[in-house]
């Protein structure tokens, strides 16, 4: 049986707490949004989709030596934005300010390694972000865009990028359940 997998970087509890405040602001605009549970907030490095056990082993074997040579770093989580058409947000995210080039480089090196072992996925520009909510309909969309605009520069804190995790995702009626399959610690600062 194949499971859905992705690579992620967890964020600390301080940033999660501040992002939860932003989520309450977004939710308070009475838009039709589903916020991401605090325990599921993370930077998605790369979505891998359905993988067999052999493919999971190849990912682990390829990333372990790469990531043990990477140096950990602090990044700042700041500002809200969205993916979707210019006037129709679909995914609301918190971005990265300080440390953006570090995390983009890390993501790019991981993607290159995965491409080398034959796990090519959709070609997307690297954009470090934390998905905080998904917009389900256009109900009160202008009010929602207004709060996103007001939160464009809000600072949610710093988090240490000290590990990349291979996670599996199981979809349930209550939402996704994530499990750590492998943890790749980065070298200390």
Description:
The chain has 189 residues and is an alpha+beta fold. The chain has one domain (3-182): Cyclic phosphodiesterase (Cyclic Phosphodiesterase, Chain: A), CATH 3.90.1140.10. It is 31% helix and 41% strand. The strands form two sheets. The chain has a five-stranded antiparallel sheet. Strands 3-1-8-9 form a four-stranded antiparallel sheet. Helix 2 (53-68) crosses helix 3. The longest helix has 17 residues, at 100-116.
CATH C-level label: Alpha Beta
Work out the helicity level: 25-40%
Global Rg: 17 Å
Distance between the termini: 39 Å
Summarize the structure.
Helix content is 31%, strand content 41%. With 189 residues, the chain is α+β, with helices and mostly antiparallel strands.
Task: Summarize the topology.
Elements: E1 3-10, H1 13-27, E2 33-35, E3 42-51, H2 53-68, E4 73-85, E5 88-96, H3 100-116, E6 130-135, H4 141-150, E7 155-161, E8 163-172, E9 175-185
Antiparallel strand pairs: 1-3, 1-8, 2-6, 4-5, 4-7, 5-6, 8-9
Which key phrases capture this entry?
five-stranded antiparallel β-sheet; globular
């Amino acid at each position: 049986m194949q499971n859905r997998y992705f690579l992620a970087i967890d964020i600390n509890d301080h940033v999660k707490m501040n992002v939860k405040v932003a989520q309450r602001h977004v939710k308070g605009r009475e838009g039709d949004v589903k916020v991401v549970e605090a325990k599921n907030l993370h930077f998605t490095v790369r979505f891998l989709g359905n993988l067999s056990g052999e493919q999971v082993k190849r990912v682990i074997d390829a990333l372990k030596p790469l990531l043990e040579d990477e140096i950990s770093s602090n990044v700042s989580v700041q500002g809200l934005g969205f993916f979707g058409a210019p006037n129709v947000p679909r995914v609301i995210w918190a971005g990265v300010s300080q440390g953006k080039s570090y995390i983009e480089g890390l993501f790019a090196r991981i993607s290159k390694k995965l491409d080398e072992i034959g796990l090519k996925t959709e070609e997307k520009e690297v954009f470090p972000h934390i998905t905080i909510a998904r917009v389900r309909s256009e109900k009160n969309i202008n009010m929602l865009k207004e709060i996103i605009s007001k939160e464009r520069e809000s600072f949610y804190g710093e988090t240490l990028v000290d590990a990349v995790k291979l996670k599996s995702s199981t979809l349930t009626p209550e939402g996704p359940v994530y499990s750590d399959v492998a943890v790749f610690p980065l070298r200390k600062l």
